[in-house]
Amino acid sequence: MIHKETRINEMLINLILLVSVIAAATFIIAVFKLKGGLVGLVLGAIVVIALIYWIMEIKRSLYERRENIVKERDWFFDLIEKGEDIIFVARVPGPPKDIKVKIIDDILEIRGGGSFLKKVQVPRGARLLEKSYKNGVLWLRLQRPKIEQKRLQ
Question: For position 2, what pLDDT does the model report?
Fold first, then answer.
Protein backbone atom coordinates (compact mmCIF):
# COMPACT_ATOMS: atom_id res chain seq x y z
CA MET A 1 0.00 0.00 0.00
CA ILE A 2 2.76 2.46 0.91
CA HIS A 3 4.73 1.48 -2.20
CA LYS A 4 1.67 2.11 -4.39
CA GLU A 5 1.10 5.50 -2.74
CA THR A 6 4.77 6.40 -3.28
CA ARG A 7 4.46 5.65 -7.00
CA ILE A 8 1.30 7.76 -7.21
CA ASN A 9 3.05 10.67 -5.46
CA GLU A 10 6.04 10.42 -7.79
CA MET A 11 3.74 10.34 -10.82
CA LEU A 12 1.90 13.38 -9.45
CA ILE A 13 5.18 15.26 -9.01
CA ASN A 14 6.22 14.41 -12.57
CA LEU A 15 2.84 15.55 -13.91
CA ILE A 16 3.07 18.83 -11.99
CA LEU A 17 6.60 19.33 -13.31
CA LEU A 18 5.49 18.71 -16.91
CA VAL A 19 2.50 21.07 -16.66
CA SER A 20 4.67 23.71 -14.99
CA VAL A 21 7.34 23.53 -17.69
CA ILE A 22 4.70 23.84 -20.42
CA ALA A 23 3.10 26.82 -18.63
CA ALA A 24 6.49 28.50 -18.10
CA ALA A 25 7.51 27.95 -21.73
CA THR A 26 4.20 29.40 -22.94
CA PHE A 27 4.58 32.41 -20.63
CA ILE A 28 8.19 33.03 -21.68
CA ILE A 29 7.26 32.86 -25.39
CA ALA A 30 4.37 35.29 -24.80
CA VAL A 31 6.61 37.72 -22.89
CA PHE A 32 9.27 37.64 -25.62
CA LYS A 33 6.63 38.34 -28.28
CA LEU A 34 5.11 41.21 -26.30
CA LYS A 35 8.12 42.80 -24.58
CA GLY A 36 11.18 41.28 -26.16
CA GLY A 37 14.73 42.22 -25.26
CA LEU A 38 16.05 42.60 -21.72
CA VAL A 39 12.65 43.03 -20.03
CA GLY A 40 11.43 39.75 -21.53
CA LEU A 41 14.59 37.99 -20.43
CA VAL A 42 14.27 39.30 -16.85
CA LEU A 43 10.58 38.34 -16.64
CA GLY A 44 11.36 34.90 -18.07
CA ALA A 45 14.11 34.37 -15.47
CA ILE A 46 11.73 35.40 -12.66
CA VAL A 47 9.13 32.91 -13.90
CA VAL A 48 11.69 30.09 -14.07
CA ILE A 49 12.98 30.83 -10.54
CA ALA A 50 9.42 30.96 -9.15
CA LEU A 51 8.58 27.72 -10.95
CA ILE A 52 11.61 25.93 -9.49
CA TYR A 53 10.75 27.21 -6.00
CA TRP A 54 7.12 26.02 -6.15
CA ILE A 55 8.02 22.64 -7.57
CA MET A 56 10.47 22.13 -4.70
CA GLU A 57 7.78 23.16 -2.17
CA ILE A 58 5.21 20.77 -3.64
CA LYS A 59 7.74 17.95 -3.67
CA ARG A 60 8.72 18.65 -0.03
CA SER A 61 5.10 18.70 1.16
CA LEU A 62 4.30 15.41 -0.61
CA TYR A 63 7.35 13.69 0.92
CA GLU A 64 6.50 15.03 4.40
CA ARG A 65 2.98 13.66 4.05
CA ARG A 66 4.33 10.25 3.06
CA GLU A 67 6.73 10.20 6.04
CA ASN A 68 3.84 10.97 8.40
CA ILE A 69 1.80 8.11 6.95
CA VAL A 70 4.70 5.69 7.43
CA LYS A 71 5.31 6.86 11.01
CA GLU A 72 1.64 6.51 11.86
CA ARG A 73 1.42 2.96 10.52
CA ASP A 74 4.58 1.88 12.35
CA TRP A 75 3.12 2.43 15.84
CA PHE A 76 3.89 -0.56 18.03
CA PHE A 77 2.90 -1.38 21.59
CA ASP A 78 3.34 -4.21 24.07
CA LEU A 79 0.63 -5.78 26.21
CA ILE A 80 2.34 -7.89 28.86
CA GLU A 81 0.35 -10.17 31.15
CA LYS A 82 1.92 -10.17 34.60
CA GLY A 83 -0.03 -12.01 37.26
CA GLU A 84 -3.40 -10.31 37.72
CA ASP A 85 -2.23 -7.21 35.86
CA ILE A 86 -1.71 -6.22 32.25
CA ILE A 87 1.22 -3.93 31.49
CA PHE A 88 0.90 -1.67 28.45
CA VAL A 89 4.02 0.01 26.97
CA ALA A 90 4.16 2.24 23.87
CA ARG A 91 5.84 5.29 22.40
CA VAL A 92 3.45 8.25 22.43
CA PRO A 93 4.35 11.70 21.08
CA GLY A 94 3.71 14.89 23.00
CA PRO A 95 4.40 16.64 26.29
CA PRO A 96 3.21 14.90 29.48
CA LYS A 97 0.29 17.34 29.92
CA ASP A 98 -1.17 16.25 26.55
CA ILE A 99 -1.15 12.52 27.33
CA LYS A 100 -4.67 11.32 28.13
CA VAL A 101 -5.67 7.71 28.77
CA LYS A 102 -9.15 6.30 29.28
CA ILE A 103 -10.85 2.93 29.07
CA ILE A 104 -14.34 2.69 27.60
CA ASP A 105 -15.81 -0.84 27.62
CA ASP A 106 -13.00 -2.90 26.07
CA ILE A 107 -11.15 -0.05 24.32
CA LEU A 108 -8.08 1.67 25.74
CA GLU A 109 -7.96 5.15 24.19
CA ILE A 110 -4.62 6.99 24.15
CA ARG A 111 -4.33 10.65 23.17
CA GLY A 112 -0.99 12.35 22.71
CA GLY A 113 0.46 15.52 21.25
CA GLY A 114 -1.06 17.00 18.11
CA SER A 115 -3.65 14.74 16.53
CA PHE A 116 -2.23 11.51 17.95
CA LEU A 117 -5.06 9.14 18.89
CA LYS A 118 -4.82 5.37 19.15
CA LYS A 119 -7.29 2.77 20.34
CA VAL A 120 -6.27 -0.65 21.62
CA GLN A 121 -8.59 -3.49 22.56
CA VAL A 122 -8.18 -4.73 26.13
CA PRO A 123 -10.25 -7.21 28.17
CA ARG A 124 -13.73 -5.87 28.97
CA GLY A 125 -13.87 -4.50 32.49
CA ALA A 126 -10.13 -3.75 32.76
CA ARG A 127 -9.28 -0.83 35.07
CA LEU A 128 -6.39 1.62 34.93
CA LEU A 129 -4.31 1.31 38.11
CA GLU A 130 -1.13 3.21 37.30
CA LYS A 131 0.17 5.53 34.59
CA SER A 132 3.71 6.73 33.87
CA TYR A 133 5.08 8.79 30.97
CA LYS A 134 8.82 9.41 30.59
CA ASN A 135 10.90 10.32 27.53
CA GLY A 136 8.06 9.63 25.10
CA VAL A 137 7.24 6.18 26.52
CA LEU A 138 3.84 5.55 28.08
CA TRP A 139 3.65 2.81 30.70
CA LEU A 140 0.29 1.67 32.08
CA ARG A 141 -0.70 -0.95 34.62
CA LEU A 142 -4.19 -2.28 34.09
CA GLN A 143 -6.11 -4.58 36.39
CA ARG A 144 -7.57 -7.57 34.61
CA PRO A 145 -11.30 -8.00 35.31
CA LYS A 146 -12.21 -10.52 38.04
CA ILE A 147 -14.39 -12.63 35.73
CA GLU A 148 -11.54 -13.15 33.28
CA GLN A 149 -9.11 -13.98 36.10
CA LYS A 150 -11.39 -16.82 37.27
CA ARG A 151 -11.95 -18.08 33.73
CA LEU A 152 -8.19 -18.24 33.01
CA GLN A 153 -7.36 -20.25 36.14
Answer: 47
